[in-house]
Amino acid sequence: MATNGLMASSSVFLHRPRIAFASRTNQTVGKYGKGRVSFMGIGTRRLPVVLSMTAMADSGEEAVKSVLPGNGISIMVNGCSGKMGKAVIKAADSAGVNIVPISFGSAGEDGQRVEVCGKEITVHGPTEREKVISSVFEKHPELIVVDYTIPSAVNDNAELYSKVGVPFVMGTTGGDRNKLYETVEEAKIYAVISPQMGKQVVAFLAAMEIMAEQFPGAFSGYSLDVMESHQASKLDASGTAKAVISCFQELGVSYDMDQIQLIRDPKQQVEMVGVPEEHISGHAFHLYHLTSPDETVSFEFQHNVCGRSIYAEGTVDAVLFLAKKIRLKADQRIYNMIDVLREGNMR
């Protein structure tokens, strides 16, 4: 999810499917392995999934109150000129979070001024980034950086945040994710890193992980068709779809990631998928269709998102969560959206 042209959303809704899949015979079998694409962690590391949503202990109540709706928190949104960056700024402003009028962007954006919510934000290019962010962090000691830049900037940005020691929320996808986690873990700083910031979508993914862990092989022998539709600017397959598919693989389904049917043509998106025309430039529709070996049983899972607000709101919740952890002097480590959901203090 998370480039400057990233999709995002204002509503998540489930409804009866409106799309006819292309024949499986027309799909190319890819070279990807069938290894798990885990949403909960990287490599073999797995984070525990707990169904109970337990609230903070009494000792943390004051800290909870102090960060809601955002007292004393300042955020610096890198990638503020992009659609996701602007959406996060709007959501943060509504939550009472202070927006630092400085952002990082590309070399071509250096010196530009972006106006969002009546605030003028100055964009700095790649030069002197360490000097700039160190100065901002000194002026705003409760600063949390939000990153919605581009995949190629993920690792360099994470190294910079780690070097300065500033807490951050990484919403940008892509880059070398193993290196990303290693960098932040070695620095021992506060961070929320998640490939999916939509809280409800994250909850669905967590449920899929639980099902895969509890009932491995339950769909053994079933065939799977997967369609995902995003705006034309998203060239790669959805990371969310890959995470769900990995769960189906543990449930016994044989499927290669290259078989995902990508819909990027606006006409098909409107006529075949049912995407509202006003959301062609920003949506995330997913459909998973399972069929039994004898074709007498079928299951369908669908989650559709229009707009960007679901991701922006989730990002602000991650910021408030991280601020609370910092004030409670909790472990300085990498958290994810499962941790944010489990906290039980969603707005």
TrEMBL record:
It is an enzyme of class 1 (oxidoreductase). GO terms for molecular function: 4-hydroxy-tetrahydrodipicolinate reductase; NADPH binding. CDD domains: DHDPR_N (cd02274). One of its GO terms (cellular component) is chloroplast stroma. Residues 201-341 form the Dihydrodipicolinate reductase C-terminal domain. Its main location: plastid. GO terms for biological process: diaminopimelate biosynthetic process; lysine biosynthetic process via diaminopimelate. Keywords: Amino-acid biosynthesis, Chloroplast, Diaminopimelate biosynthesis, Lysine biosynthesis, NAD, NADP, Oxidoreductase, Plastid, Transit peptide. InterPro entries: DapB_C, DapB_N, DHDPR_bac, Dihydrodipicolinate_Rdtase_pln. It comes from the Eukaryota. The keyword Transcription does not apply. Residues 73-197 form the Dihydrodipicolinate reductase N-terminal domain. Belongs to the DapB family. This is 4-hydroxy-tetrahydrodipicolinate reductase. It comes from Arabidopsis suecica (Swedish thale-cress).
